[in-house]
């Protein structure tokens, strides 16, 4: 690491050697763990390595990511060393028809870690945004702002591989967050904001949950997902591909991981993709 990485002592760089030693041995081990000072996108880097034949189990972590992407092509950027930005490379043996569950399973793993290590009541907004209580932050208009987004997940399939990227806000102050519907572990009152500690917890949980997925399929994790999914039971607005907007009651999540939406006319619709907003009142949103 360059000396410049230590200029902000409250946001030190991640410790490559210690992380690699801790996370490449034991029952929840990854094949390799690499930390880089900066990159455009850890997902893009691992997608390219997947195309070149890299084996499963690689973890790539960036102290600073300047070209990160969220779902629907959104650009994702945070101050250096204020967040965890990392991706993992998988080559699942489960049928491809079940791969849509991988990002949902990853969301479960992140909530596992935040509940256990950070002491926070983390939940999920369908499909895989990780939410925390707003902790006194103002609620944006039209948003059920008792919960704010602390992490996002992006899964990309590449032939027989899947790359899962996770961005988790850790130490940002309110003025460093990109949108008013976001929060950080710091703002939510986490028991720890040490990025090494949180990263280890998330990666170990992710390894365990992915192993469950491989052995049990989505059926073994669906109940846990539904229990953690705070979208279920709320009125939502879904922004669908093609610029279509749909409002209704989130009635559940089916065996394919699709959100079941009960429409005002009483009919139902299963959503496999879309940007969902939790709203106070569907008639005024």
From TrEMBL:
Gene3D superfamilies the record matches: 2.30.30.100, Bira Bifunctional Protein, Domain 2
What is the official name of this protein in its record? Answer: biotin--[biotin carboxyl-carrier protein] ligase
Q: Where in the numbering of this chain does the BPL/LPL catalytic domain appear?
A: 17-214
One Pfam family hit:
BPL_C
Which Gene Ontology cellular component annotation is one that this UniProt entry carries? cytoplasm
Q: Which PROSITE patterns does the UniProt record give?
A: BPL_LPL_CATALYTIC (PS51733)
Keywords for this entry? Answer: ATP-binding, Biotin, Ligase, Nucleotide-binding
E.C. number, please? 6.3.4.15
- Which residue ranges traverse the bilayer? none
Q: Which EC class heads this enzyme's classification?
A: ligase
For molecular function, the Gene Ontology terms on record are: ATP binding; biotin--[biotin carboxyl-carrier protein] ligase activity
NCBIfam families (alphabetical): birA_ligase
């Amino acid at each position: 690491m360059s000396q410049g990485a230590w200029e902000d002592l409250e946001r030190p760089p991640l410790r490559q050697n210690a992380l690699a030693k801790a996370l490449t041995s034991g029952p929840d081990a990854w094949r390799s763990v690499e930390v880089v000072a900066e990159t455009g996108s850890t997902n893009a880097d691992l997608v390219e390595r997947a195309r070149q034949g890299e084996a499963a189990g690689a973890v790539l972590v960036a102290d600073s990511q300047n070209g990160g992407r969220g779902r629907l092509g959104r650009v994702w950027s945070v101050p250096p060393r204020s967040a965890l930005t990392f991706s993992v490379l998988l080559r699942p043996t489960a049928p491809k028809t079940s791969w849509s569950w991988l990002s949902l399973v990853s969301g479960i793993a992140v909530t596992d870690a935040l509940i256990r290590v950070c002491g926070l009541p983390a939940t999920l907004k369908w499909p895989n945004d990780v939410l925390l209580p707003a902790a006194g932050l103002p609620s944006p208009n039209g948003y059920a702002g008792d919960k704010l987004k602390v992490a996002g997940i992006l899964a990309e399939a590449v032939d027989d591989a899947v790359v899962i990227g996770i961005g988790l806000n850790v130490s940002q102050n309110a003025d460093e967050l990109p949108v008013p519907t976001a929060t950080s572990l710091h703002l939510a009152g986490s028991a720890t904001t040490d990025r090494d500690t949180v990263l280890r917890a998330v990666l170990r949980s992710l390894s365990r949950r992915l192993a469950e997925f491989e052995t049990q399929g989505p059926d073994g994790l669906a109940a846990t997902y539904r229990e953690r999914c705070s979208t279920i039971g709320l009125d939502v607005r879904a922004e669908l591909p093609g610029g279509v907007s749909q409002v209704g009651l989130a009635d559940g999540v089916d065996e394919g991981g699709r959100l079941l939406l009960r429409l005002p006319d009483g009919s139902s619709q299963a959503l496999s993709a879309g940007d969902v907003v939790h709203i106070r009142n569907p008639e005024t949103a």
